[in-house]
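Need residues for this backbone.
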C-alpha cells in the first residue's frame, strides 16, 4: 500500500521537474525526496519518472497517474477545509486573508465597516505572503475569504466576486525626481534604472509582466515580491518602480511619473465553495460588493 505523503512528493517533483526543487518546497532533503519516489514506484509497481542529468521527466505511466494524484490532492484539501469549517458556528469567526498591502488598504477598513452593522460576526485577519494559488491559505483551508489583487480567478472550487479595477503607475522618490527628473512616459524612461516585481508576481498580474518585458535587463536593479517592498525601495531613491496608484499617491516622499493603459489590476474577494455555504461569509461578500460599487475604492 502506498503512503499519501509519497503522492504529495510525487506531485511536487512532477510539477518542479527535479528532486532538488521539490525538496526546497516540501522541506525535505533532496535525497529523501528521491527515496520517497523510489518507494512509491516500488509500491505501485510502476516507473513514474525517467531520471536524467537535468532532472525528472514523467513517463507515460507517470502522466496518467499525475491527473489522479491532482484529484487526490484537491480532495484531501477539501476534507481539511470542510472539517475546520464544521468546527465553527455559522455566525462564528471569519478568517479573512490577503497580502499586506491589500489588507492595509482595503481589508481592515472593510471589516470595520461591516462590523458596525454586524457586531455578532468576528474576524481573524491573516497576512498571506504567497502568490502561488496552490500555497495560499484559501486552498489550504486556513482562511474562509481572501483578497486577491490578480487578473483572473480560476478553479471550480472557488466563488469569486470582482470588487474593482485599479490603475497602477510608475513612481520615484522626491530625491530621485530632484536629481534626475521624473520621466512622463515609457519612452522617456528608457535607460533609467527600475526595481521590478518577481516572476511569481508577473505570472498573476499582466500589468507587471507587461512592464517587465518593456525593460532591458541592464536597466533592472533588483526584484521584489511585495508592494510594501517596492514602496520602501522607491522611498530609498533606488530608481523607478510600479505601484498601485492608491498606494503610490498615499506614500510619503514618492512622485508619480506616469501611467499607461496597460497598467491596471483587479481586486477580487474569493471564498471556497465550503466557506460560501456559511451565511456570515455570503453576507460579508455581498456587503463588500456593494461597498465598492458605491465608490469606496480606498476602503474608507
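Answer:
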Amino acid at each position: 500500500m502506498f503512503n499519501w505523503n509519497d503522492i504529495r512528493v510525487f506531485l511536487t517533483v512532477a510539477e518542479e521537474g527535479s528532486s532538488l526543487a521539490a525538496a526546497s518546497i516540501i522541506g525535505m532533503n533532496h535525497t529523501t525526496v528521491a527515496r520517497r519516489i523510489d518507494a512509491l514506484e516500488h509500491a505501485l509497481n510502476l516507473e513514474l519518472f525517467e531520471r536524467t542529468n537535468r532532472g525528472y521527466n514523467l513517463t507515460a505511466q507517470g502522466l496518467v497517474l499525475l491527473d489522479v494524484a491532482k484529484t487526490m490532492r484537491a480532495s484531501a484539501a477539501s476534507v481539511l477545509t470542510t472539517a475546520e469549517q464544521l468546527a465553527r458556528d455559522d455566525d462564528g469567526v471569519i478568517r479573512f486573508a490577503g497580502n499586506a498591502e491589500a489588507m492595509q488598504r482595503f481589508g481592515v477598513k472593510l471589516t470595520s465597516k461591516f462590523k458596525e452593522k454586524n457586531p455578532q460576526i468576528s474576524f481573524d485577519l491573516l497576512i498571506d505572503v504567497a502568490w502561488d494559488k496552490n500555497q495560499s491559505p484559501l486552498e489550504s483551508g486556513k482562511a474562509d475569504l481572501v483578497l486577491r489583487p490578480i487578473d483572473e480567478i480560476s478553479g471550480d472550487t472557488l466563488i469569486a466576486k470582482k470588487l474593482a479595477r485599479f490603475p497602477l503607475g510608475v513612481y520615484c522618490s522626491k530625491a530621485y525626481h530632484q536629481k534626475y527628473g521624473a520621466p512622463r512616459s515609457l519612452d522617456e524612461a528608457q535607460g533609467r534604472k527600475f526595481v521590478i516585481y518577481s516572476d511569481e508576481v508577473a505570472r498573476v498580474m499582466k500589468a507587471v509582466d507587461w512592464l517587465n518585458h518593456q525593460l532591458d535587463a541592464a536597466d533592472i536593479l533588483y526584484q521584489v515580491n511585495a508592494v510594501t517592498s517596492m514602496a520602501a525601495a522607491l522611498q530609498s531613491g533606488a530608481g523607478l518602480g510600479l505601484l498601485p496608484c492608491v498606494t503610490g499617491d498615499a506614500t510619503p516622499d514618492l512622485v508619480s511619473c506616469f501611467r499607461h493603459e496597460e497598467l491596471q489590476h483587479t481586486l477580487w474577494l474569493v471564498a471556497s465553495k465550503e466557506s460560501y455555504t456559511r451565511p456570515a461569509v455570503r453576507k460579508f461578500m455581498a456587503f463588500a460588493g456593494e461597498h465598492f460599487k458605491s465608490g469606496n475604492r480606498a476602503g474608507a
